[in-house]
Write a structure and sequence with these properties.
This protein has 14 helices and 18 strands. It is of the alpha+beta class and about 475 residues long. It has three domains: about 300 residues, Zn peptidases (Aminopeptidase), CATH 3.40.630.10; about 40 residues, no CATH class; about 120 residues, no CATH class. The strands form four sheets. An eight-stranded mixed β-sheet has the order 1-2-4-3-5-9-7-8, with helices on both faces. Strand 7, helix 9 and strand 8 form a beta-alpha-beta unit. Helix 3 packs parallel to helix 4, helix 4 crosses helix 11 and helix 9 packs across helix 11. The radius of gyration is 23 Å and the shape is globular. The N and C termini lie far apart (about 70 Å). The mean pLDDT is about 95. Bound molecules: zinc ion. The site of zinc ion has 4 residues, from loops. Zinc ion binds next to loops.
Length: about 475
């Protein structure tokens, strides 16, 4: 046994032979051991309710060195998807032991191995307050999502990877007689406002790189697809929703990916293989980032320059459409337990914008609306009481509100009419300028017709049910 192997700390999963789930407390104890082992690692713990801790691990991240891209890996926003966390613990242990020196030397690394400690400890998808964190990156209702937002804002990573698991064992698939059987699915950006170069490089370079690496290690792989086509649903590359972590980082000029490992029949079934497949995926993506450090930084800084001074339409409603391709889609036959390739006609890989708006200079938020102000403070968006001069204030007069079904989520699609407002009372509004890396996200959040805007959430739909939309455009 080599010296390194003798000193190797075991992860809690390894210690239990991957037969039990790792508690938040076990995870914290493990990180403390790793921290002692490594002078390049540091850990910060954000306290949560019920004595749980949200750990933030950095390798060099505290004094990020210019010229290196900052990469953020996060796992377990969904508490009942443990393998991403277990995989990142294997990675942290390696890095703390001085393995993969090139990665630590070439990247500033931030790892959030467990974003939903309460969900983890109760093996449930949602947080203690029953919030789905991966549908909370714009509304920020969960304390845990707000912590992710703060970390993203502090470090402004250029590359992010969000680790999840999918569950292919549902009844619909059982009746159909086939199921998905990919150890790992990898998804890129789909929101049409995100950077073209990033979307292209994902398809052209990152997908084939990870596929080759995983297949070489004996894992099956496919691009992330969603939609139960056996019951007529459209098969698509997931959502375009900026409330999901991947799109919310992506809309801020980040090369942002999602990993979907295959969950077990229950949370511990095949947990070792699942954790290993997530670990290998993380390692492949970090090697890609280290080898393409300059390119990633250039892409992100160009995207963020454009966001700083947005031009052209910003899409606020979009949907998925068929392309020219019939997809060859491998599924496991539950009868023969062999792969069968399906020709999927309902493959909808193309995202098209249905409605866009031109960026305003900014928005005015009524200071007296305590719900909106509470949200604005958590949003991470810059705001102040100083309202610019020499500008026009535009209100949306509200017409008929239609319900529409996009992304399978019922949303409102109101008719609006623009009109000029005179006589803004000083001090009665907060100004949110449409600039900086969140400029697109601000527009998506605050336009009344936006399918992912705050007004599309039940707690804010009062904004639509007034004569005039209370948030004003500054033009
Ligand atoms: Zn998930």
């Amino acid at each position: 046994m080599s010296a390194t192997a003798q000193q190797m700390i075991l992860t809690p999963g390894e210690t239990a032979g991957f037969s039990k789930l790792t508690t938040n407390k076990q995870l914290v104890d493990f990180l403390k051991q790793c921290d002692l082992q490594s002078d390049q690692m540091s850990v910060k713990y954000y306290p949560l309710a019920e004595d749980r801790l949200f750990p933030v691990v950095t390798f060099h991240g505290n004094n990020s060195l210019a010229g290196k891209p900052t990469v953020m890996l996060l796992a377990q926003q969904h508490g009942n998807e443990p393998s991403g966390m277990e995989g990142l613990l294997l990675l942290i242990r390696d890095l703390a032991n001085g393995l993969h020196k090139d990665i630590v030397a070439d990247l500033n690394l931030i790892i959030l191995p467990q974003c939903n400690p309460y969900g983890n400890d109760f093996n449930q998808r949602r947080t203690a307050k029953s919030i789905d964190m991966n549908r909370d990156h714009l509304l920020m209702r969960a304390e845990e999502t707000t912590i992710i937002q703060q970390i993203f804002d502090n470090y402004r990573p250029q590359f992010t990877v969000d680790f999840h698991e999918y569950y292919p064992f549902g009844n619909g698939w059982k009746e159909f007689g086939y199921r998905r059987n990919f150890d790992i699915q990898l998804g890129g950006l789909t929101n049409p406002n995100t950077d073209h170069a990033m979307r292209n490089i994902f398809k052209a370079e990152i997908l084939p790189w990870v596929e080759a690496g995983l297949v070489n290690k004996g894992y099956s792989f496919f691009e992330y697809t969603l939609g139960d086509f056996s019951s007529g649903e459209r098969l698509r590359h997931s959502t375009t929703d900026v409330n999901d972590g991947r799109q919310s980082f992506g809309i801020a000029g980040t090369l942002s990916l999602i990993v979907e490992g295959m969950n077990g029949l229950d949370s511990t079934e095949r947990l070792e293989r699942r954790s290993q497949s997530q670990y290998e995926t993380a390692l492949l993506l970090l090697k890609y980032a280290a080898a393409n450090a300059v390119l990633i930084q250039q892409m992100s800084s160009k995207a963020r320059e454009r966001l700083n001074n947005p031009e052209g339409m910003v899409s606020i409603r979009q949907d998925h459409f068929k392309g020219d391709v019939v997809l060859d889609y491998p599924l496991l036959s539950l009868k023969t337990m062999k792969d069968t390739v399906f020709k999927v006609e309902v493959y909808h890989p193309v995202v098209k914008s249905l409605l866009g708006v031109y960026p305003p200079k900014g928005y005015l938020i009524p200071a007296a609306d305590t719900l909106l102000m509470f949200w604005l403070k958590r949003s991470g968006f810059v705001h102040s009481k100083v309202i610019p001069e020499g500008v026009a204030f535009i209100a949306y007069r509200m017409g008929v509100i239609n319900s529409s079904l996009l992304e399978g989520i019922e949303g409102s699609d109101p008719e609006v009419f623009k009109e000029t407002v005179n006589g803004i009372q000083p001090g009665s509004y907060f100004y949110v300028p449409v600039t900086g890396i969140y400029s697109h996200k601000i527009i998506i959040a605050l336009e009344p017709q936006s399918m992912y805007g705050i007004a599309s959430f039940p707690e804010f739909d009062y904004l639509l049910r007034q004569e005039k939309f209370p948030v004003l455009r500054v033009e």
